[in-house]
């Protein structure tokens, strides 16, 4: 079954917000300094986690 554009955009926004929250939580728990890690590394972590969340949400929303 095909997903609507609105559903995909909503899933994408949810995945990005969730990834920012997860990376921030992990950083706070382990006491990481995002300034020392660098912007590219932090953005890479966020995009990677967002990709995992996005994939899981798309699979969960398809009715195959």
Compact description:
The protein is mainly alpha-helical and 64 residues long.
Describe this structure as you would to a colleague.
This protein is 83% helix and 0% strand. The protein has 3 helices and no strands. It has helices spanning 5-30, 34-37, 39-61. The chain is mainly α and 64 residues long.
Please give a handful of descriptors for the protein shown:
single chain, 64 residues, mainly alpha, 83% helix
Radius of gyration over C-alpha positions, nearest whole angstrom: 14 Å
Task: Determine the mean pLDDT.
Answer: 93
Distance between the termini: 7 Å
Uncertain segments of ≥5 residues (pLDDT<50)? none
Beta percentage is under 5%
Q: In this structure, how is the largest beta sheet organized?
A: none
What count of helical segments does DSSP give?
Answer: 3
How would you spell out the order of helices and strands? HHH
């Amino acid at each position: 079954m095909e997903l609507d554009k609105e559903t995909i955009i909503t899933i994408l926004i949810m995945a990005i917000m969730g990834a920012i929250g997860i990376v921030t939580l992990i950083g706070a728990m382990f006491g990481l300094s995002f300034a020392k890690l660098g912007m590219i590394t932090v953005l890479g972590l966020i995009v990677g986690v967002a990709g995992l969340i996005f994939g899981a949400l798309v699979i969960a929303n398809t009715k195959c």
